[in-house]
Design goal:
With 110 residues, the chain is an alpha/beta fold. It has helices at residues 17-29, 44-47, 53-63, 80-92, 101-109, and strands spanning 8-9, 34-38, 67-71, 95-98. It has one domain (8-109).
Length: 110
């Protein structure tokens, strides 16, 4: 196990808050507060803001002082309310959304 990881990357579906907590807990265990999340590992509820899932996950990131880069599929930005949240998050500094892994990696490790 790499105790000096620069970031922890999602590899499995994050379907419930318990999965998300396990994911960020594993990041901390591996010595990092940076996480890289692929949109394909998130359920559609994350992108439906009425479900509250995105807010719950983002609040956990804030509570545990984590930085997150989330790689989005273009189709997710077609939803106006979600797109607004993405633009607001990208201005905050600790959570950012990207279209590709290279840019997300650069932001996390830069």
């Amino acid at each position: 196990m790499n105790k000096t990881a620069k970031y922890h990357e999602s590899e499995n579906l994050i379907a419930h808050i318990s999965d998300f907590l396990d994911f960020i807990g594993n990041a901390r265990y591996n010595g990092t507060a940076n996480v890289l999340i692929h949109s394909g590992h998130l359920t559609e509820d994350f992108f439906n803001l009425k479900s509250g899932v995105a807010g719950e996950y983002l609040q956990k990131l804030s509570n545990y002082v984590m930085r997150a880069a989330i790689i989005l599929d273009e189709t997710h930005l077609e939803q106006p309310r979600f797109r607004e949240m993405v633009f607001e998050a990208n201005r905050s500094g600790d959570i950012a959304y990207f279209k590709d892994k290279e840019t997300a990696f650069s932001w996390l490790t830069g």
